[in-house]
Amino acid sequence: MTAPSLSHRALLEHYGLTPKKSFGQNFLADPGIAARIAALASAGSQTVIEIGAGLGALTAPLLERTSHVIAIERDRDLVPVLAQRFAAELGQGRLELLEADAKSVDYLELLQRVPPPVTLAGNLPYQLTGPLLQRSTALAPQLARAVFMLQAEVADRLLAPAGSEHYGGLSVFVQAQYAPRRAFSVGRGAFLPPPKVSSAVVVLEPHPAPLAEETPRFQALVHGAFQQRRKQLRNAWATLAPSERLERAALAAGVSLEARGETLTVEDYARMAQALGSP
To answer: Residue 114 burial (CB < 10 Å; 0-12/13-18/19+)?
Structure first.
C-alpha cells in the first residue's frame, strides 16, 4: 500500500505523527466534505491558494478540479507527507508546496504570478481565524472568492446582520468587502481528532465595489464601538475626536450618537468615517 492510498489515521501512523494541539490541528477526514468544499472553491477559478494543507484532504479534490494549487503548510513534519503523496502533481507543476505560516505569507506576490481567477480556501484553525480573515479582507479585490471552514460560532458572526446578537467588529470588516453565505454545516465526526465544536463552510463573494474603505478612521470607529458595545456611541467614540466634531460628523452621516455600535450597518460606519475625516 502506498502512502497516497492510506487513510488519514493510517497516514499519521505511517509517518509516526500525531495531530499537534499547539497548531490547532483537526484534520478533515471526510472525503465527501472535502469534495464539496473543493467544488465551491474551484468553480470558475484557475488557481486555488489553500491555507493549511495538512494531510492533503482538500488538496486532492482541488487538484482534480482546478489547474493550479498552491498549498500552504507550516508544519514541517507534514510537508514531506504532502510531497510524497502528490509527487506527480508537483512534478507537473500543477501543485506548489509552500512551507510557511499562513499569517505572514505574501499573498499579493502569489496573486501576481498565478493564473487568475484565484480562490483562497482552507480549514482555518480557531486561534488563527481572526488574523487570516483580516488578511483575506485586504485581498478581496484580487480574489474570485474565499471559501473557509470555520467554527460554527465564527460563521454566525460573519453572517450576522446589524442589531443581532452575533453582530460585531468581525461582521463589519468582513461584510464591508464580501457578501458572505453559509454553504453547509460540518459535524465533529468529519475530523481527526474530532473537535469540541461544530463547524460550517462559508463562501465569501467580493463586492463589485467595497461597501467601505478600511481606512484607519473606519477601523478606529468600529473597534471603539464594539470594544465598549454597552456604551452609547457618544461615549465609545469620545477619544476619537472632540465632541463638537463628532456631533457634526454624526449629523452629516445620519448616525445617532445615542445609539450603540451593534445597531449601525457597514454603510453607517463608512459614512461616519468619511464625515469625520482623517485622524
So the answer is: middle
